[in-house]
Amino acid sequence: MEKLVVATKNQGKLREVKALLADYPLEVLSLKDFPDLPEIEETGSTFAENALIKATTVAKQTGLLALGDDSGLEVDCLDGRPGVLSARFAGEPVSDWRNNQKLLALMAGIEPEKRTARFRCVVAIVEPTGQSYLAEGTCEGRIGYTMVGDQGFGYDPLFIIPGLGLTLAQLDMASKNKISHRSQALKQAIPILLSILKR
Ligand code: IMP
After folding, report:
1. Which of 24, 40, 148, 181 is most buried, judging by how many CB atoms fall within 10 Å of its CB?
2. Among the atoms of ligand 1, which is closest to the Cα of residue 168?
3. Is the Cβ–Cβ distance between 26 and 88 less than 8 Å?
4. In sequence order, what DSSP letters do the residues of 141-195 get, joined into one string?
5. What are the beta bridge partners of residue 4?
6. What is the 154 CA–ligand 1 centroid distance (Å)?
7. Annotated active-site positions, please?
8. Which of 9, 64, 4, 85 has the alpha carbon at shortest distance from 40?
9. Alpha-carbon separation of residue 27 from 5, 50, 145, 156 (angstroms)
10. What does the pLDDT read at residue 155?
11. How far is the CA of 71 from the centre of ligand 1 (A)?
12. Which of 98, 155, 156 to mutate to test the pocket of ligand 1 (most atoms within 8 A of CB)?
């Protein structure tokens, strides 16, 4: 069976990828299976660059098919910030709570219809030859005025899904995964993986 190395140590992400690829003839591994590989620096200025850096590095180092992803929040009234800097928006030490507070402070006084935002995720698939492919997914919403809900992570407590009137932090994992930017991007990546497997 062909092996696919997911360029992450995050067990939540790995579970999501494994669930979406469960029906396909792929043995899904992660960086946990290659503990000696050096830390990968995310030096790109776009989600695509960072996803490619992760997948290319891992494909090169393992000689196996690799999948990397990068994601973040784009807020329209902040010209797309925090974007690729989402994880470290409020600086070190990295803290979801401080990131959310910084976002709320920057958006104080902005009316509801101007609080539109989206999560974006880019998935890169890279073959050991260096051949690469990209897939992308988005999840549209708007930023609330206070943090609501205790599930999920990151900016979920501020991210309201308009059709539901709930934040992502109020959804259980299965419901979030159905609409998330990551699952949309991974679903787009499945035909790419299948075409590689057919060769
Ligand atoms: P990464 O793709 O794991 O590097 O995610 C970068 C950052 O984007 C995270 O640390 C979060 O701050 C934010 N982010 C990405 N996906 C989500 C999500 O599904 N919910 C909330 N925040 C997210």
Report:
1. 181
2. 20
3. no
4. EEE-SS---SSS-TTGGGEEETTTTEEGGGS-HHHHHHH-HHHHHHHHHHHHHHH
5. 28, 65
6. 6
7. 70
8. 9
9. 8, 24, 43, 30
10. 97
11. 6
12. 155
pLDDT higher than threshold 90 for residue 199? no
Q: What does the block give as tokens for 116? A: 């539109």
Mutate to test the pocket of ligand 1, among 73, 148, 181 (most ligand atoms within 8 A of CB): 73
Amino acid symbol at 165? G
| 86 CB near ligand 1 (under 6 Å) | yes
| b/e per residue 52-83 (b: at least 16 CB within 10 A) | bbbbbbbbebbebbbbbbbbbbbbeebeebbb
> Separation of 86 CA from ligand 1 center, angstroms?
7
**In whole angstroms, what is the distance from residue 177 CA to residue 193 CA?**
20
Check pLDDT > 90 for residue 84. Answer: yes
Q: Kindly report, residue by residue over 23-74, the tens digit of the pLDDT.
A: 999 999 999 999 999 999 999 999 999 999 999 999 999 999 999 999 999 9
Closest to 71 measured CA to CA, from 146, 145, 148, 16: 16
Query: Residue 191 corresponds to which tokens in the numbers above?
Result: 């035909």
Q: Which of 141, 157, 166 is nearest to 101 (CA)?
A: 157
Q: Quick check: CB of 153 below 6 Å from ligand 1?
A: yes
Is the CB–ligand 1 distance for residue 180 below 6 Å?
yes
Which amino acid type is present at position 198?
Answer: K
Q: What is the C-alpha to C-alpha distance for residues 9 and 5, in angstroms, rounded to an integer?
A: 11
Q: For ligand 1, is residue 89 a contact (CB within 6 Å)?
A: no
Token reading at 30: 């992660």
